[in-house]
Amino acid sequence: MLPIHPQPLPDEILSSWMTRLALENQFPLHTFYNKLIQFKGEIWNRDTDRFLQPLLLSQLEKYTGQPQATLQHLSLRYYESILFDHLSEVGNAPWLIPLGIYHRRRRRFGIHYCPVCLAEDRDPYFRRKWRLAFYVACEKHRCLMESGCPRCSAPVTYYRLGMGRSFEIKKYKLSTCASCGYNMGWSKPRQLHSADPQTENILFDLLQTFDRQGWHPPVPSAYSALLFFKGLITLVRLLGRRSVRQRLEPLASEYQLPNQPNRHCEFEISSIEVRSMLLMAALKLIQNWPDRFVEVCQTTGLTNSRITGDLLNEPFWLSQTIRCNLSRPNTALPVEEAKSIHQYLQKHNLPFTKINIQRTLSCSRRYATRIMETLHREQTE
Ligand SMILES: [Zn+2]
Ligand SMILES: [Zn+2]
């Protein structure tokens, strides 16, 4: 066992704890992991919070007494079944800001921070949710997240505090910029761009509670966090599309869409300002689901075919709303669809009535009638 083994702090991300562990034991990272922990593999030239190495976890358990399950929880795997089904070790993942790893360098601003949290921390550390693209503001201090060092503009790379030749351990805290030595806790907090109070409340409620047990998504027909986030990412990506924003131009000021109608905004790699705008606009669109969304799409001419070609991968609450309300009228309703809704209601012991179809699909009364008629025809033929 090591003489000093700090406990993970609330919501701390694995790489932050691993860095503190080495620094508090007064060792450079390489020596610490290679010699003391006896792990000879590569650590810092990959996304440590995503790429979990079983041998590293077992060595950490052995030397710190932290169970491997706890360590896994500190990683981004924690968000499996909340934000995505399964987190792959490489490639882009929904909601995760990529690090842009190039050897031990980071080319992207993959981890953000709240300067006030860092300033208030007795022992500054980095939070797991600071890697999430929708985490645009600190729910505690209500300020915009920051993406890099305000003095030298370098991305946050706290693990590099424990590397290099002129390494002096004592004076470093994790809030220190590894490139220029600036204390990022001194950054001036910035205000989140203003939205209407209701949307802001939805945003902060989401940021505060999305990963808690029993959380109810703001769209009642999205039955779980996973289904909700799958639909939400489609909406923010949709709003990031140039062609869609051009259509929404008449509503740009009401929805505070990014003021660059000619640019495609890829959500996970856009700036915090752009992401916060796209997210707020999406959170506004889902209010009173699906009425507001349908109205906006109908008034701006956003039809099913303009929105997406493939609804198969979308969760029910979104795909059905698009299919039912934004498709061209008189499109024949596939029998399979009516059957699957019938089966779904049966499985949940709900009677096959118009109101239950409407509630389940977030669809219009007219569409529910068509479903009932389609199935009735199929059964009598
Ligand atoms: Zn904060
Ligand atoms: Zn700096």
What do these coordinates show?
The protein is mainly alpha-helical. The protein folds into 3 domains: 14-186, no CATH class; 197-325, no CATH class; 332-381. Helix content is 41%, strand content 1%. It is built from 16 helices and 2 strands. The chain has helices spanning 14-24, 29-36, 54-64, 68-74, 115-120, 197-209, 225-240, 242-247, 252-255, 272-285, 291-300, 304-307, 316-326, 335-347, 354-361, 365-380, and strands at residues 101-102, 105-106. Strands 1-2 form a two-stranded antiparallel sheet. Strand 1 and strand 2 form a beta hairpin. Helix 14 crosses helix 16 (365-380). The longest helix has 16 residues, at 225-240. The mean pLDDT is 88. One zinc ion binds at residues 114, 116-117, 138, 140-141.
